[in-house]
Amino acid sequence: MARDEGLEALLEDELAGEPDLVVKPMFGGRAWLLHGHLLCGARHDGILFRLGRGRDGWALAVAGVAPMFSRDRRMEGWVRATPEACGDDTLRRRLLDAALAFVATLPPK
């Protein structure tokens, strides 16, 4: 799967200075882990955000945001925002803030 270096750069900029952040190749692109937990990922078809089970309804109501699927299985609590939707700075920041808030509730690994 092809990477989208533009989306990766957006996340790098948004997450600059976030403590205990690790970037790894994953999902056919790059993934960001915070305190050992998956937070988000960028790949050719958009940005994946981990919002948490039951916390993604508002995001799924936004055009350009859909559930994340892995091998035909829906990943509850994860959404994928298209590259076009990620071009909206306010939406991208709102999704990222929601992901950061959820991951902050998880115990450190």
Tell me what the structure shows.
This protein has 109 residues and is of the alpha+beta class. It has one domain (5-77, 87-104). Helices cover 32% and strands 36% of the residues. The protein has 4 helices and 6 strands; from the N terminus they run αββββαββαα. It has helices at residues 5-15, 57-60, 83-86, 89-104; strands at residues 21-26, 29-34, 37-43, 46-50, 65-70, 73-81. It has a 6-stranded antiparallel beta sheet with strand order 1-2-3-4-6-5. β5 and β6 form a beta hairpin. It starts with a helix and ends in a 5-residue tail after the last helix. The mean pLDDT is 94.
Helix and strand arrangement:
Blueprint: H1 5-15, E1 21-26, E2 29-34, E3 37-43, E4 46-50, H2 57-60, E5 65-70, E6 73-81, H3 83-86, H4 89-104
The count of β-strands is 6
Low-confidence stretches: none
Quote the beta fraction: 35-45%
| Lateral strand order in the biggest sheet | 1-2-3-4-6-5
Order of helices and strands: HEEEEHEEHH
Mean pLDDT: 94
For the record, the count of structural domains works out to 1
